[in-house]
Amino acid sequence: MGRDAVDLVLEQWARARPDIDAAPMGVLGRLTRVTRIAERELKALFAEFGLERGEFDVLATLRRAGTPGGMTAGTLARSSMVTSGAVTNRLDRLVAKGYVTRDVDPDNRRSVIVDLTPAGRDLIDRAVVAHVENERRILAALDQDQQDGLAALLRTLLLGLGDEAGAPDEL
């Protein structure tokens, strides 16, 4: 098996500080590097659709929620796990591009309802297919059993860190 960049870092620490077990750096260092590489690949794909990552997230959240008539901006912010200010900026861009509408909720004038336009729905339907294929390509070095095992291990780690479904995200 080949060596990755993290192997070099671990070897350097073993020489510089043999009294420290740097094994956790191997795990978290690799997670960080995988995330950076994957983010670069995802960003390139989203750009092919004229989107930024956050814009894709908003469109995908609206699409997967399947809520007839859209969802409130607050619910959208909680579902996309970003601040309301970040959602507002993303919505401004998506409204300008013609992919979402933003209207006052007739039942609660203090709320805003966000919904996909037909163009936004078409775009996200095409983009999500390409996105899943891109993710499949990124993970191609692992067979399906390895991918399933890695997903299970990462779920265990996330749960151990308190990242449960429905819990507020502080990232």
Structure notes:
This protein is mostly helical and 171 residues long. It has 7 helices and 3 strands. The chain has a 3-stranded antiparallel β-sheet. The chain has a domain at 50-159: Orthogonal Bundle (Arc Repressor Mutant, subunit A). The model has no long low-confidence stretch (mean pLDDT 91). 15% of the residues are buried. The longest helix is centred in the first third of the chain and has 26 residues, at 23-48. It comes from Actinomadura verrucosospora.
Describe how the helices and strands are arranged.
Blueprint (H helix, E strand, L loop, with lengths): L4 H12 L6 H26 L4 H13 L5 E2 H8 L3 H14 L2 E6 L2 E9 L1 H21 L5 H17 L11
Antiparallel strand pairs: 1-3, 2-3
Helix pairs in contact: 1-2, 2-6, 3-6, 4-5
Number of strands: 3
Structural class by secondary-structure content: mainly alpha
Q: Please give the order of strands in the largest beta sheet.
A: 1-3-2
The geometry reads as: elongated
Would you give the CATH topology of the domain at 50-159? Arc Repressor Mutant, subunit A
Give me the Rg, rounded: 20 Å
Q: What is the CATH domain class of the domain at 50-159? A: Mainly Alpha
List low-confidence stretches: none
- Strand % is 5-15%
SSE series: HHHEHHEEHH
Distance N to C terminus: 35 Å
Q: Which CATH architecture of the domain at 50-159 is right?
A: Orthogonal Bundle
Mean pLDDT: 91
Number of helices: 7
Helix share, percent: 55-70%
**CATH homologous superfamily title of the domain at 50-159:** Winged helix-like DNA-binding domain superfamily/Winged helix DNA-binding domain
Largest sheet: 3 strands, antiparallel
